[in-house]
């Protein structure tokens, strides 16, 4: 099981291939990279891919 950043994986195998592997559109991959989201992709032992995002909680500040 290996982990790699979304950006680095796109450099290695291409945006369309990453999108197919994790089940999203190529546009979603592009948007995530352009917004500099911290997404880590896990390449599982069976060859499947899973993606996770690490972000602060709460993700949005609310004024009360």
Automatic annotation (TrEMBL):
<dbReference type="GO" id="GO:0006355">
    <property type="term" value="P:regulation of DNA-templated transcription"/>
</dbReference>
<dbReference type="GO" id="GO:0003677">
    <property type="term" value="F:DNA binding"/>
</dbReference>
<dbReference type="InterPro" id="IPR000655">
    <property type="entry name" value="Cro-like"/>
</dbReference>
<protein>
    <submittedName>
        <fullName>Cro protein</fullName>
    </submittedName>
</protein>
<dbReference type="Pfam" id="PF09048">
    <property type="entry name" value="Cro"/>
</dbReference>
<dbReference type="InterPro" id="IPR010982">
    <property type="entry name" value="Lambda_DNA-bd_dom_sf"/>
</dbReference>
<dbReference type="InterPro" id="IPR038202">
    <property type="entry name" value="Cro_sf"/>
</dbReference>
């Amino acid at each position: 099981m290996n982990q790699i950043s979304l950006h680095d994986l796109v450099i290695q195998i291409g945006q369309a291939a990453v999108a197919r592997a994790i089940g999203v559109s190529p546009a979603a991959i592009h948007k995530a990279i352009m917004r500099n989201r911290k997404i880590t992709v896990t390449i599982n032992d069976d060859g499947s891919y899973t993606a996770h995002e690490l972000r602060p909680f709460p993700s949005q500040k609310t004024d009360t």
